[in-house]
Design goal:
- By secondary structure, this protein is mainly alpha-helical.
- The chain has one domain.
- The mean pLDDT is about 75.
């Protein structure tokens, strides 16, 4: 029962209406939430850059580009559009063995795979993943 309820909520509920008019109150909320995310993203990007073994500036550039692409193409509430700890740990061995040059190519390939999964509507298979609770 909880699984069905969560699946229904994820598919049908929206926490903000993108077509709602931009009132001064909504503008203030959007700007403050954007600043909060941006300020939280800076130390996270630097930390993940250190974990991946690249310069902190590379992590900041990557965080900016990901945020920019998400803002241009749109996102959904609750969508993760930043660095993750699992990705940083995997990138350590890639950077150590092949250098930073291959890091860019692998991230582009990862994005293309994600776009392909989205176009093929493979997101519905995430429901097959067992809950940990």
């Amino acid at each position: 029962m909880p699984r069905r309820l969560l699946a229904y909520a994820a598919d049908n509920l929206s926490f903000s209406d993108p077509d709602a008019p931009l009132t001064p109150t909504r503008l203030r909320i959007e700007v403050l939430s954007g600043l909060t995310v941006a300020l939280a993203l800076v130390p996270e990007a630097v930390a993940f850059a250190f974990v991946a073994g690249v310069a902190p500036l590379v992590g900041l550039y990557a965080a900016f580009i990901v945020g920019l692409i998400t803002a241009i193409f749109g996102g959904r509430p609750g969508m993760i559009s930043g660095a993750t700890g699992a990705l940083a740990v995997v990138m350590v061995s890639l950077v150590a063995s092949h250098g930073v040059e291959y890091l860019f190519a692998s991230v582009v390939l990862m994005g293309l795979l994600q776009l392909g999964a989205g176009f093929l509507k493979l997101g519905k298979f995430i429901r097959m993943v067992q809950n940990s609770w």
